[in-house]
Amino acid sequence: MKREDSIYLSVISPVYGAANLLDELVERIILSAEKISESYEIVLVDDCGPDDSWDKIQAQCRQNPKVKGLRLSRNFGQHYAISAGLDYCQGTWVIVMDCDLQDQPEEIPKLYEKAQEGYEVVLARRHRRQDKFFKKLLSRLFHATLSYLTGIEYNNEVANFGIYHEKVVKAISGLEENIRYFPAMVKWVGFRSTTIPVEHAQRPEGKSSYNLKRLLNLSVDIILSYSDKPLRMTVMLGLVLSASSLFFSIFVIFKTIKGEMELLGNAGILISIWFLAGLLIFLLGIIGLYVGKVFQGVKNRPIYIVNELVNFD
User: Fold this and answer.
1) Strand 158-165 vs strand 121-126: parallel, antiparallel, or unpaired?
2) How far apart are CA 22 and CA 28, in angstroms?
């Protein structure tokens, strides 16, 4: 989409399973956006959830032309919905926030004020997360693993909520990889960035769409897409096993010649074979996952498909 100078602030929110929260979300965003500029837009991206969110989005669009609706053809996922919003927004400054009201719209002016100090990216740091213990634990483990494998520091208190200058948005939209993870893309494009503490609210109703299975699938996709360290670790593991087996063989032969040890029997041989076979299958599986991601990439399919647009010129 061609950006228009008349729009100063864009607020993007991917919507999934939050039909009952949309009216309050839009109302609170408007109050915060008007403190910054009268020139703003609210881009609600419907990711085809299980409820009637699109009907609510259309109703908001009819009431206010500054509210714009974008519906995807199917459920692509949160980070793909964010990518769609980034491609279609037109603001000089862009806010990205979740739709469940845990990211509070009242924090938007704080993010904007910090950005005026010369930052292109200002991220919200949830210093007191209002999530359940299990979700916080998984988040901490995931970000620690991702930080180790990529060599880039990720903070589990920081997610998508933040303000981004249009040149950051343009750089992210230009990335062509088909696996999308918004925080990692923000890290990769660089630009001057900082974080500020914000209040994190409890979810008014419903529960997160990220169950354990979806979190694991997302984690595998992100790790395989943003790090080759697992491949390098398999090489190191192979070298360690080869060296260990060589030294162990020399030790066994030496002890056997001296008569201090009998040769291993069938049980020991079977255990060794099973261990090495399982390890080889595991390592081949890791390589296969990487090959699968390459196969997905060479298809060159669009990362999302737009079904309907409302209030877009």
Assistant:
1) antiparallel
2) 10
Which residue type, as a one-letter code, is found at position 87?
D
Structure tokens at 39: 């020139």
Q: Are strands 93-96 and 40-46 parallel, antiparallel or unpaired?
A: unpaired
Where are any strands of DSSP class E within the chain?
9-15, 40-46, 67-72, 93-96, 121-126, 158-165, 193-198, 306-310
Q: Which residue has the higher pLDDT, 96 or 154?
A: 96
Q: Are strands 193-198 and 121-126 parallel, antiparallel or unpaired?
A: parallel
| Phi, psi (deg, nearest 5) at residue 248 | -65, -40
Average pLDDT over residues 27-31: 93
Percent of the chain whose pLDDT exceeds 70: 70
Q: What tokens appear for 94 in the block?
A: 């862009």
Q: What is the pLDDT of residues 180-194, one digit of tens each?
A: 888 888 888 889 989
* Helices marked H in 227-265: 229-257
Distance from C-alpha of 145 to C-alpha of 138, rounded to nearest angstrom: 10
- Tokens 């919905």, located at residue: 81
pLDDT band of 13, cuts 50, 70, 90: very high
Rounded Cα distance, 26 and 252, in Å: 73
How far apart (Å, rounded) are the C-alpha atoms in residues 110 and 112? 5
